[in-house]
Design goal:
alpha+beta, 6-stranded antiparallel beta sheet, Gas vesicle protein GvpL/GvpF, gas vesicle, about 35% helix, GvpL/GvpF
Length: about 270
């Protein structure tokens, strides 16, 4: 962690005239303060508030005009959000958002989007985002399909020991049957899991399943005091599905999946 007593002869948290600003999030209130975390860019820039009319953008001086989505940059961005979240409800801003000047922060974010931001702050107050993924464990998916779909199992068995050229169309048919069965099985099991999980959440956003073994990929916005209940539920589901399903629960994180705030309202 870098100490931030001065920056180019200016007290930390006081942006120089005409200096570009990297944006992380917006918080309630007009307190001028710095946070004990380094800004993006690897130069130890201070992270501070830019207050305006009851709201404050959390920013740092931006040494770059654009930022690639590298692990280093994403980690720096998320570390700032985690630090601010410890004391404030935040409305996160899209990664890589840079305002050319302090005035532009007000003119393109805080002024025109004030009503939207205040509404989001009210909705997010006391709530956290958690991410949950569920997977079939290795060997489970096709074993279960073949145990109930004898036609698919028999077709597979007929291909054993025969050349790919000889069985080309049968292999295509097998692939199509398996693909359809996997899709149906995933949808059915995802619906069953969501029916158990959703009652704990204020809002639910289902993401695309990534990879064949993934059943469910969901983001949950829930009251902070329900996080223990969610952890207990996931632990119970894990125990019920021992040696069959694998669950990964991540969070709390900044509520990116329930906010799409950018530097300009129509971006």
């Amino acid at each position: 962690m870098t100490a931030h007593p001065l920056k180019n002869g200016t007290p930390a948290g006081t942006p120089a005239a005409g200096e570009a600003q990297y944006l992380y999030c917006v918080i309630d209130g007009e307190e001028t303060r710095t946070f004990d975390v380094d800004g993006i860019g690897g130069k130890g820039d201070a992270v501070y508030t830019l207050p305006f009319d009851g709201l404050s953008a959390v920013v740092s001086s931006s040494p770059e005009a654009e930022y690639d989505s590298t692990r280093r940059n994403l980690t720096a961005h998320m570390r700032v959000l985690e630090t601010v979240m410890a004391d404030h409800t935040i409305v996160p801003i899209r990664f890589g958002s840079v305002a050319p000047t302090v005035e532009a922060v007000n003119d393109t974010l805080l002024k025109p989007q004030a009503a939207t931001i205040r509404g989001l702050l009210g909705e997010l107050e006391g709530r956290i985002e958690m991410g949950l993924k569920a997977f079939w464990m290795e060997g489970v998916l096709y074993s279960e399909i073949l145990s109930v779909r004898q036609d698919i199992a028999q077709l597979r068995d007929r291909l054993v020991g025969r050349s790919p050229d000889e069985t080309y169309y049968e292999r295509v048919k097998l692939g199509e049957l398996l693909e359809a069965e996997v899709s149906e099985k995933r949808a059915r099991e995802a619906t069953e899991l969501l029916a158990k999980i959703s009652p704990l959440a204020y809002r639910v956003k289902q993401q695309d399943a990534l990879g064949e073994q993934m059943i469910l990929n969901v983001s949950l916005l829930l009251d902070r005091d329900k996080s223990d209940a969610l952890e207990e539920l996931v632990a119970a589901l894990d125990a019920e599905n021992e040696n069959r399903l694998l669950f990964k629960l991540v969070g709390p994180t900044a509520p990116y999946n329930f906010v799409d705030l950018s530097l300009t309202p129509d971006a």
